[in-house]
Design goal:
Blueprint (H helix, E strand, L loop, with lengths): L3 H23 L3 H25 L4 H15 L1 H9 L4 H11 L5 H19 L3 H33 L4 H57 L3
Helix pairs in contact: 2-7, 2-8, 3-4, 3-8, 4-5, 5-6, 5-8, 6-8, 7-8
Length: 222
């Protein structure tokens, strides 16, 4: 009995794979373009997950740690602490500390310059993800058009309306449309999720920078 269950599962898995291969071939040549879009979108999604979650840090806690280090060991030690952290908040704090002792305008200008660099890094790949979410349905509709053209061409060549000829073209048309929408839907969800995370990072950067700048100016640290 124990040996039968794995065999049944293997057969079921083979049946699912074979069904997906048949489904893919029935969709025609446009399915290859949709497959490329899906693979590229998946690569961007994985990269975004890795980048955005690697940079997670509690900004309030981090700024408190930086201030404690400044008071205990000085600005140099705090800058070294920030340089060892890969988070966006650490980069912004380091930019503020680099100009410690200068005027508010100089500190804020250095922070703004670093923030623009970090925001560009956070936005990396988002434009491609938005493009893929639009391109996938367009390719699906393209498959719809080519499928319908093939169906009508087959009917014209046969000289009569043969159901099997029409059904083949309509099947291709519907498969590519469904596949395009199935690819686009999760891409839109991930794009929205990543955009919300990037907006949160932006707010955290601003909050951390304001807190640390106020401390630097009030404490007159250099």
């Amino acid at each position: 009995m124990k040996g039968i269950i794995p065999i049944l599962l293997i057969h079921q898995a083979q049946g699912v794979v074979q069904g997906m291969v048949d489904y893919f071939h029935k969709g025609g040549g446009v399915m290859w373009l949709l497959l490329i879009v899906a693979i590229l979108a998946l690569a961007v999604i994985i990269e975004r997950f890795y980048t955005l979650f690697r940079l997670r840090v509690n900004p309030r806690k981090f700024v408190v740690e930086v201030i404690d280090i400044i008071e205990g060991e000085g600005v140099g030690a705090a800058m070294e602490f920030c340089s060892r952290n890969a988070s966006v908040v650490a980069k912004i704090c380091q930019a503020a500390l680099e100009k410690a002792g200068e005027s508010r305008e100089i500190i804020e200008e250095n922070v703004a310059r670093r923030a623009s660099v970090e925001l560009a890094f956070l936005d990396r790949g988002m434009l491609w993800l938005a493009s893929f979410s639009t391109l996938a349905p367009i390719l699906g509709f393209l498959g719809t058009v080519t499928g319908m053209i093939r169906a009508f061409a087959a009917v014209a060549a046969a000289g009569e309306v043969e159901p099997t000829l029409v059904a083949s073209g309509i099947s291709e048309a519907l498969i590519t449309t469904a596949t395009g929408l199935l690819i686009a839907a999760p891409i839109v969800v991930f794009h929205t999720f990543f955009s919300s995370r990037i907006n949160a990072f932006s707010r955290e950067m601003e909050e951390a920078a304001n807190t640390l700048i106020e401390y630097i100016l009030e404490s007159k640290v250099k």
